[in-house]
């Protein structure tokens, strides 16, 4: 039987769900083949509710439970798209790795353990698809004192790692994270700052568009150096890894406080240009600090389709080629979903999914919880 897994990712951009059906040839992810990719956007009511649940509000428990159900109905539709496209029957798929929707991420805070919360209803997904589901990949790492994020570096190492060569992988989702795959075999990874979450918010507010296609609007503006340096002073950027972040920090309130706490350009296009530069600067700074000898930077996530952002990052890293991951046979919008297919496989095989050097957890841990078909 082919080793078939589905990965489902709905990330911090809140743009919808990416799913992939993957075939694994052996235990190494290098032998992974994406058989099918499907994407479904959230309808506006679901997107608005998921966004609202990122901040405290009335009757949250009830609303969060219903939002988990709504999310899973989109997941089930994506699974059905994948099976139809690939003409594969549900019974042939070993498991689905379903990330869920992060609405809070506070590892290590409050009582020392803190929490990370992904809305989901894996029982309903198992019911709707008839396939085993693995979910809640982050909590065990947090329980072991880790950040619970980013989790993709282990997958990046397995698919993009090259012995004796330093490679940097940059994910530009709602939040940005890097993986530094050093020539000597060490792997470091951490969230390096905001990516599309703030740019999408600003674009929607001022242009009525969910995102700035190709970064054309940002490219039309001028970087506001004063605003940029105020943003760069955010303590998260100077923090040493392990570190992770999310909409808990980089949200509309953060942006509003940056805009109101000193002089800033009145022109919204200039703010967009400044946000793009903040992403480029923070990613390039992280790469220079942890993978200074990288001559290749592989970019995944929707930001890889933002030509302006890609050029800005490249201009900060003149000694490296900055290319989308399609170059390595895995298109940018498939990487994270494939990582959760890979993590589901790791769970089924009782292999640890975390890298302690990345998350800071006390040890390697098997990640996820099992919901049988
Ligand atoms: N053609 C494009 N031009 C500019 N930006 C784009 C383009 N296509 C997608 N994007 C951006 O990519 C985002 C989606 O990226 P992605 O699917 O990687 O996010 P995500 O899964 O939410 O990420 P993460 O979990 O890493 O935070 C969109 O919200 C948009 O901002
Ligand atoms: C808590 C959470 O959902 N974090 C996401 C988010 O989106 C990007 C970045 O922040 C990364 O840390 C993580 O996602 C990827 C899939 C990860 O865990 O590697």
From TrEMBL:
Pfam families: AnmK. It catalyses: 1,6-anhydro-N-acetyl-beta-muramate + ATP + H2O = N-acetyl-D-muramate 6-phosphate + ADP + H(+). Keywords: ATP-binding, Carbohydrate metabolism, Kinase, Nucleotide-binding, Transferase. The keyword Nucleotide-binding applies. Its EC number is 2.7.1.170. ATP binds at residues 11-18. Pathway: Amino-sugar metabolism; 1,6-anhydro-N-acetylmuramate degradation; Cell wall biogenesis; peptidoglycan recycling. Coiled coil: none annotated. This is Anhydro-N-acetylmuramic acid kinase. It comes from Piscinibacter terrae. The gene is anmK.
């Amino acid at each position: 039987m082919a080793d078939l897994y589905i990965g489902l990712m709905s990330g911090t951009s809140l743009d919808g769900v990416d799913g992939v059906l993957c075939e694994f040839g052996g235990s190494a992810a290098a032998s992974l083949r994406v058989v099918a990719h499907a994407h479904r956007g959230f309808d506006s009511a679901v997107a608005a509710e998921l966004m609202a649940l990122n901040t405290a509000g009335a009757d949250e428990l009830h609303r969060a439970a219903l939002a988990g159900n709504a999310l899973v109905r989109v997941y089930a539709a994506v699974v059905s798209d994948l099976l139809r496209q690939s003409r594969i029957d549900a019974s042939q798929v070993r498991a689905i790795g379903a990330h869920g929707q992060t609405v809070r991420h506070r590892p290590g805070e409050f009582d020392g353990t803190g929490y990370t919360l992904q809305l989901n209803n894996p029982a309903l997904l198992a019911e709707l698809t008839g396939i085993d589901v693995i979910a809640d990949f982050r909590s065990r790492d947090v329980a072991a004192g880790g950040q619970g994020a980013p989790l993709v570096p282990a997958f990046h190492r397995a698919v993009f790692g090259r012995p004796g060569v330093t490679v940097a992988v940059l994910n530009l989702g709602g939040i940005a994270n890097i993986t530094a795959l050093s020539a000597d075999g060490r792997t470091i990874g951490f969230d390096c700052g905001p990516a599309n979450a703030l740019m999408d918010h600003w674009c929607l507010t001022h242009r009525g568009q969910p995102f700035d296609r190709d970064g054309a609007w940002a490219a039309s503006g001028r970087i506001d150096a004063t605003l940029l340096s105020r943003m760069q002073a955010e303590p998260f950027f100077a923090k040493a890894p392990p570190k992770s972040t999310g909409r808990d920090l980089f949200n509309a309130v953060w942006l509003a406080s940056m805009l109101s706490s000193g002089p800033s350009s009145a022109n919204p296009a200039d703010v967009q240009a400044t946000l793009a530069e903040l992403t480029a600067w923070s990613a390039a700074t992280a790469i220079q600090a942890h993978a200074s000898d990288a001559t290749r930077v592989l970019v995944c996530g929707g930001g890889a389709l933002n030509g302006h952002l890609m050029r800005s990052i490249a201009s900060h890293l003149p000694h490296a080629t900055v290319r989308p991951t399609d170059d390595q046979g895995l298109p940018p919008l498939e990487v994270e979903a494939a990582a959760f297919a890979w993590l589901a496989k790791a769970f089924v095989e009782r292999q640890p999914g975390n890298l302690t050097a990345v998350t800071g957890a006390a040890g390697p841990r098997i990640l996820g919880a099992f919901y049988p078909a």
